[in-house]
Amino acid sequence: MSKIYNQYNLPSLVERFMDNVSPEPMSGCWLWTGTVRDKKGYGGLTVDGLTQRAHRVNYKLFRGRIRHGLHVCHRCNIKACVNPDHLYLGTNAQNMADAARDGLRPHGESHPRTSLTEEDVRAIRNSPMGCVRLARIYNMTKVGIMGIRRRRTWKHIE
């Protein structure tokens, strides 16, 4: 549905946006077919000289203002989706919890940068040894051990 625009027939932002959308009838997603401009795979669109994520632009177009500090989250968990009915505002914590729940964010043993197992975490929490000694044993920092013990990290392990 592309149009040829010249200097006298500039498209509105809605027209430019919708030229880069392809509805997917089975899921109801509106898939972004325009440029993917970030490493995470989200679509991008230049608005007023600034590149913005497509799903954020769409939320502003069809739903309204995004309050400072809030994320535009996907109910469908499809990064390319820009359907306003699939988008909602949430905090960073809500966004991360959704991603972890849906298996989109590696955590625990599946995280590529961990050397611990769930068994190690349980042993750390149950050990009478001090944090410094445990840090040496597990090749970690004292702060890392404290985070595990205080349940700031590895929260999903009882």
Structure description:
This protein is of the alpha+beta class. The protein has two domains: 13-101, Homing Intron 3 (I-Ppo) Encoded Endonuclease, Chain A, CATH 3.90.75; 108-149, no CATH class. Helices cover 32% and strands 14% of the residues. The chain contains six helices and six strands. The protein has helices at 13-18, 54-62, 92-101, 118-126, 131-138, 142-149, and strands spanning 21-23, 30-32, 44-47, 50-53, 71-74, 87-90. The chain has a two-stranded antiparallel ribbon with strand order 1-2. It has a two-stranded antiparallel sheet with strand order 3-4. A hairpin with a 6-residue loop joins strand 1 and strand 2 (30-32). Helix 5 (131-138) crosses helix 6. Mean pLDDT is 84; it is low at 1-8.
Helix content: 25-40%
Distance between the termini: 53 Å
Tally of DSSP helical segments: 6
Q: What is the global morphology? A: elongated
Oligomer: single chain
> How many domains comprise the coordinates?
2
- Give the mean pLDDT: 84
Radius of gyration: 22 Å
Largest sheet: 2 strands, antiparallel
Approximately what portion of the residues adopt beta-strand conformation? 5-15%
Low-confidence runs (pLDDT<50, min 5 residues)?
1-8
Supply the CATH class of the largest domain: Alpha Beta
- The strand order across the widest sheet is 1-2
Helix-strand string:
HEEEEHEEHHHH
Identify the CATH architecture of the largest domain. Alpha-Beta Complex
At CATH level 3, the topology of the largest domain is Homing Intron 3 (I-Ppo) Encoded Endonuclease, Chain A
The number of E-state strands comes to 6
